[in-house]
Amino acid sequence: MSAGQLPRWVDYGLIPVLNLAAAFLVSGLVVILIGENPIDAVKILLWGSLGYGEGVGFTLFFATNFIFTGLAVAVAFHAGMFNIGGEGQAYLGGLGVAMACLAMDQYVPWWVTLPFAVLGSALMGAAWAFIPAWLQARRGSHVVITTIMFNFIAASLMVYLLNNVLKKAGSMQSETRTFEDGGRLPFLNDIFPGFGFDYAPVNLSLFVALLACVLVWLLIWRTKLGFEIRSFGANPTAAVYAGISPVRTIIVTMLISGGLAGMMAINEIMGSQHRLLIDYVAGYGFVGIAVALMGRSHPVGIVLAAILFGMLYQGGAELSFEMPAITRDMIVVIQGLVILFAGALEYMFRPALIRLFASGTGPSAQAA
């Protein structure tokens, strides 16, 4: 371990735990200020998310969304880019899923539609990430600015399409028609009835998300392209000197990132809503940033962080019901504190830990 570095178990394990503990400590102080017992609040949150089968099902449902968006952000991180356009890419991914389901649901079973829905969502998400990627690679436009602007363009485009092109005839709702059975993924409660998921919308896309984790791990750490992405993210100048094309790396990385974000729509559109509708993304793209940060851009860490935020979403709903003083807005505050400590304040504990471990590996310690 060289100066300024930490053991992997500290960097990937201890620091995220410390950040999470600090976030919950501050959240506990907020709960005390509004006159509630933070210990009781934690018990309700844990019970609501993990205490019974349906709660676990909802936790896994939310976690599935966060796995896709977390992977999307993580892939861009490895190339030194900050893709915050997951909202728009997931929105357009929903269009790809809906097009596949609307075209095939009346003629084939769901397992035939699913590959086309996956491909459609990935292609639409990648297409929406292509222009920001090209502008970054060719014109030097900052990807943070372009991707966040494209979120608003995607929202406006989908409003137009759902009100003027895709809306069901005779309906006043801004949504497509409901898919037939050929466009619906089976719920896990139908596949594993003994788990007691009951009416939770967790569905087969959970396994698609886990498969995506494996593929991302293989891509980043076991392929030449992954080595080029990590090299470019670590030192762009050295990567160019080694013959790695920055234009190719930026564009390919953003296409993969956008495709992963677009695949989030499989869970919502084909797995739960069974139609394309307004605002189904619901901020999942932005939460993916915190998931990637807390998970250290590694698929295993992203799965764990996604489950944590799934617990906050589901347990928070139970908490606001059991403790009316803790409103849904308060739950958003708690989620925001976790994001704050996992992201903006991620380096709060790092300098002290570096000094601590550096003192333990000094000449006197080595001599001993």
What is the element layout, followed by pairings?
Elements: H1 8-33, H2 38-50, H3 53-78, H4 86-104, H5 110-139, H6 143-164, H7 188-191, H8 205-222, H9 224-234, H10 236-241, H11 246-262, H12 264-273, H13 284-294, H14 299-322, H15 328-342, H16 350-360, H17 363-367
Helix pairs in contact: 1-15, 2-3, 2-14, 3-8, 3-11, 3-12, 3-13, 3-14, 4-5, 4-6, 4-11, 4-12, 4-13, 5-6, 5-11, 5-12, 8-9, 9-11, 13-14, 13-15, 14-15
| Mean pLDDT across residues | 90
In terms of DSSP E residues, the strand content is under 5%
Q: Report the total helices.
A: 17
Structural class: mainly alpha
Poorly predicted spans: 362-368
According to DSSP, the number of beta strands is: 0
Q: Fraction of residues in helices? A: over 70%
Overall body shape: globular
Biggest sheet features: none
Radius of gyration: 22 Å
Helix and strand pattern:
HHHHHHHHHHHHHHHHH
Give the N-terminus to C-terminus distance in angstroms.
17 Å
